[in-house]
Amino acid sequence: MKIVIITGASSGIGAEFVRQLDREVPGVDEFWLVARRKERMKGLLWELRHPVRIFAADIRNQSFYEELEQQMKECQADVKMLVNCAGYGIVGKAADRSKEELLGILDVNCKALTALTVLCLPYMNRNARIIQIASSAAYLPQPGFAVYAASKSYVLSFSRALSEELREREIYVTAVCPGPVDTEFFERAEQYGESYRFKKYFMMSAKDVVAEAIRASKQKQEVVTPGTAMKLFRVFTKIVPHAVILGFIRGYFDK
């Protein structure tokens, strides 16, 4: 059975991947959607052409991986595409947040993403594709968003290395590094305080981010940064020393 697996599928970027890939990926038997909110995923069903299998699960729980692997074995799964969208962040200084909150970010953004990727690799064949949602935060340390930015640096580094490791198998990995996206992300992230106000000026729609990510995946790009502003930001962080950029940010907010 040829399948597409998408995490974080109940809303935002994940749900938009479900909608767009439903039209873009030919020859797939089922879409397997993973998120905690079952009703949200069920709400997508009327929009889709493909049969759907729903996994209402917390991807931090080992029982989810056991169930997923069992079902992949039973249907002799051929994973044509894996899209890791699940992730979150919390705005605020690391010292002001609890250990549990910070480790929870790493559990979802890094540990779960790695676990699912590695679990799926034995079920992937030539021309399979992996899309990992990183962030433009991966390009620069972000005081006030330190753990989230660090977690996305991990996703970017892991994805690029994995792309090289899978080259001989002709399995293609694309890390997607968007800037701010107009989703529910900020509702959770800003529960304790606001992120940098200027980020809101560079907000993109989930629809545009996903469309660019899918194009990049088709073209076998290792990294894609959706949006002109964030492409310029990536170049900027390569040219200007991070200490200088962080000093500018510190001075701006100390005024």
Which key phrases capture this entry?
255 residues; alpha/beta; seven-stranded parallel sheet; 9 helices; 14% strand; globular
Structure description:
The chain is an alpha/beta fold and 255 residues long. It has 9 helices and 7 strands. The protein has helices spanning 12-24, 38-42, 62-74, 99-120, 146-165, 185-189, 206-218, 228-239, 242-254; strands at residues 2-7, 30-35, 52-56, 78-84, 129-133, 172-176, 223-224. The chain has a 7-stranded parallel β-sheet, with helices on both faces. Helix 1 (12-24) packs across helix 7 and helix 4 (99-120) packs parallel to helix 5.
Break the fold down into its secondary structure elements and pairings:
Layout: E1 2-7, H1 12-24, E2 30-35, H2 38-42, E3 52-56, H3 62-74, E4 78-84, H4 99-120, E5 129-133, H5 146-165, E6 172-176, H6 185-189, H7 206-218, E7 223-224, H8 228-239, H9 242-254
Parallel strand pairs: 1-2, 1-4, 2-3, 4-5, 5-6, 6-7
Helix pairs in contact: 1-7, 4-5
The chain-level structural class is alpha/beta
Tell me the β content. 5-15%
Number of alpha- plus pi-helical segments: 9
- The 3D shape can be described as globular
Q: Give, in order, the helices and strands.
A: EHEHEHEHEHEHHEHH
If you average the pLDDT, what whole number results? 91
Low-confidence stretches: none
Biggest sheet strand order reads 3-2-1-4-5-6-7
Q: What is the distance, rounded to the nearest whole angstrom, between the alpha carbons of the first and last residues? A: 59 Å
Measured as a percent range, the helix fraction is: 40-55%
Q: Roughly how many Å is the radius of gyration?
A: 18 Å
Q: Give the total of beta strands.
A: 7
Largest sheet: 7 strands, parallel
